[in-house]
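Why does residue order matter? Because the sequence determines the fold. Keep that principle in mind as you read this record.
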Amino acid sequence: TLLMGGTETTLNMVDSGMWLLLEHPETLAQLRADHSLIPNFVEEALRIESPVQQLGRHAIVDTEIGGVAVPAGARISIFYAAANRDPEHWDDPEAFDIHREEAKRHLGFGAGVHYCIGAPLARMEGRIAFARLLTRLDNIRYSPGKNDFRHGPNHVLRGFRELWLEFDRA
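Structure:
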């Protein structure tokens, strides 16, 4: 479960992270100059481009959510991606900010008893992947005419159908 559960989500974290870096060249320059920023970059990327968008749960007791009665046994969709952009929780939630102090408080790995057991591994994979990519690849750019930036048809996982990049060896 740990390895298979993290395959597509890790891939989506890396491709979304590369897309974010190309959309925010100032961030790419900051990370190249200071690799100590990579861990918070990974957290902010997980917040704003959550690989897991939502998961279903069942209410175990009668409860109320946002003024709506939810009976025990009802199916509930938890939208982590929406929570990660909640203006009541995040300052400037639509902004991608690798200096965001509270970035690690995102719900990209869920919460409580359902918190992802693979979170430490995923974070480590993200830190290592981006450190290596930024060290070994120069002049990273989109491949001309190849990207349509469409996400896959899955409503649970978020990732590009494909992301074509070109680069020079560093």
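The CA atoms of residues 114 and 144 lie 41 Å apart.
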